[in-house]
Predict the structure.
Amino acid sequence: MAGVTLGDETASLLQRLIRLNTVSPPGNETEAARLLQAYLAQSGVEARLVAKDEGRANLVARLPGAGGPSLLLVGHTDTVRAEPEDWTRDPWSGDLVGGEVWGRGALDMKGHVAAAAVAFASLAREGFRPAGDIVLALTADEEVGDDLGLSWLAREHGELVRSDFALNEGGGDRCVFGGRTFYLCGLAEKTIAPLRLRVTGRAGHASMPALSDNALVKAGPLIEAIARLEPPRTLLPEVERFLLEILGEVPPVEVALERARALHPLAALIVEPVLAATLSPTMIEASRQLNVVPGSCEVVVDCRLLPGQAPADLEPLLRAALGKGDWDLEWLDRLRVGGSGSPLDTELWHALQSWVDLVEPGARLVPTVCSGFTDSHYLRMSLDTVAYGFFPLRAMDPELAAQLVHGADERIAVADLADGVDVFRHVSQVLGESALTPA
Ligand SMILES: [Zn+2]
């Protein structure tokens, strides 16, 4: 591959990955897994496809090390859907325009997948012998989560993906606050804890409202009460560290958000969702017929708890806000997921900071808590892996990137792909290095 940089190699692999439509459902990730398997084979890597559902295979490969700390490079090959009419280009074109590769999944997260595959393949063909095993897992079914991807793999085939450390999505943005540069590293996630509010009334003919008791109308003020609820704020250790790094001190929780906002609006956007639990009413169901007053109304609320919080911690506050009335609430236990975290200041943390030191001396790695959910949760819970979210974006503005993920005109700069390969190679090379050096 003389003359072709690793960035170009990644861009070309990403173009091919984007052109395979892996929108989930139905996913069809096996096509992506086969493409990646063939790509890795060119560098002498024997990758294995492991599937619970034939059409939705996961790929795993291993570069054996010398018994030191193992590292898993992980990413998902499925994407969310795209509405072509909202896009400037075909979402599955994989066009390379002005140094950017366009298409659904460029940022979330086929770009990351391509960079991990290229880092792994390039190390393999160079004959690199890592301190600990380097494992590559490019998995299906992250966006919907039907237990065909990493959740299943970690639970049923733990031996294939077990590792001391893992790098996944959910961080890496480069932010400049107060003239200083920071790289976000995702350490923990909130818990998704949905709940259902059921309001009861009495059904009747819509032409004579006085004779019935409209549950939909009664739900109105209750929905407003939920939306107005302000659960108590608290500073998680990760948030304290973030504030310490960007502000030089940890402010009291009451003024933390204002202090972050005064420094930079983006700093406030990072801090706000992880100061407290949040409650967003998102779905409602009442009468199915125009002329029937609903006798019951169900509202589903997307509630996100802080790591370490349980529904019981929030429930008294919620009940008090709703007051007395004809309602009951139910936590949807089978939909509850997330809430895991990994420690700060580990060997992986230092390896990432050492990469930041190389590319941008003086810049600091700072921890973030993700308000969403990633597959890192399954690695932490099933296999006790220290899993971080880190894929650096230096060429693209983090606020633009946030709009493009799951949005229209998703694209990624080739320069950012090159950085991704670089950081994965760097971490693979330095992790466990000290263990290899004779004392
Ligand atoms: Zn993703």
In short: The pocket of zinc ion is lined by residues 76, 108-109, 142, 169 (CB under 6 Å). The chain has a mean pLDDT of 95. Residues 191-232+276-338 form a domain with the Alpha-Beta Plaits fold (CATH 3.30.70.360).
